[in-house]
Amino acid sequence: MDVKIENSWKNKLSEEFEKPYFKQLAAFVKEEYGTQQVFPRGKEIFNAFSHCTFDNTKIVILGQDPYHGPGQAHGLSFSVREGLAFPPSLLNIFKEINRDLGLGIPSNGNLSRWADQGVLLLNATLTVRAHQAGSHQNKGWELFTDAVIRQIANEKENVVFMLWGAYAQKKAGFIDEERHLKLHAPHPSPLSAHRGFLGCGHFSKANAYLKSKGLEEISW
Predict the structure, then answer these.
(1) pTM to 2 decimals?
(2) What does pLDDT average to over the chain?
(3) Integer Cα distance of 12 and 22 in angstroms
């Protein structure tokens, strides 16, 4: 795996890339791409970092796995390419933005427009086999993405962490709430969205927090 990652992240994570677990992970991922159908495309594995630099990160939205259907995943959690139907969780995210901020449902589900403003759309696992959810879990990605979260939590101030569902909440449990804003809600999946994601108001709360810290709000 050729680690093509934006320079500010490369500087922060260079030690991580040299650790034994990451070298094993890189070998595993390279083998998988050579023998299986894997998403996202290889050049898009680190897409979240390309769109959102370390210095520009204002908000972190944690997902679990990339989408495992053809053409959906492109390296940003919850996001899909233009022209594809909205997955159910993404549709519920747009419904909550509509309820919270009065914004219409967008024409496409490509969230690059958020990432470019400083929203790190980070999946815990950055690759997956086609049609096999969770197939690349416990191979090392979680250690890497934990390191990313720790770097943000320890070296930045006033970042909003949107933690949807028990998995995200557990993964980011070590973040200091004196330095950052942690917003908790059920996952936007249809299985749980009605238990408090719809109505959580995270998007207006995040912008109010950013504004209170003198930071530019996100255009959702």
Answers:
(1) 0.96
(2) 96
(3) 15
Residue 185 pairs in a beta bridge with: 164
95, 198 in Cβ contact below 8 A? yes
- Count other Cβ atoms within 10 Å, centred on residue 216: 11
2 catalytic? Reply is: no
Helix residue ranges, H only, 104-201: 112-115, 141-155, 166-171
Q: What is the pLDDT of residue 5?
A: 84
State the DSSP string of 75-112: SSTT---TTSPPPHHHHHHHHHHHHHH-PPPPS---TH
User: Out of 2, 55, 65, 100, which one is annotated catalytic?
Assistant: 65
Specify the 3-state DSSP secondary structure of 183: strand
For residues 186 and 195, the answer to whether their CB atoms sit within 8 Å is yes
Dmax over CA atoms of the chain, in Å, equals 50
Continuous segment of H or E residues that includes residue 205: helix 202-212
Q: Choose among 77, 25, 22, 85: nearest CA to 49.
A: 77
- pLDDT tens digits along 93-121: 999 999 999 999 999 999 999 999 999 99
Residues 135-149 pLDDT 10s: 999 999 999 999 999
Structure tokens at 162: 């949107």
Do residues 67 and 126 lie in contact, with contact meaning Cβ atoms separated by under 8 Å?
Answer: no
Instruction: Identify the residue whose tokens are 């995210």.
Output: 93
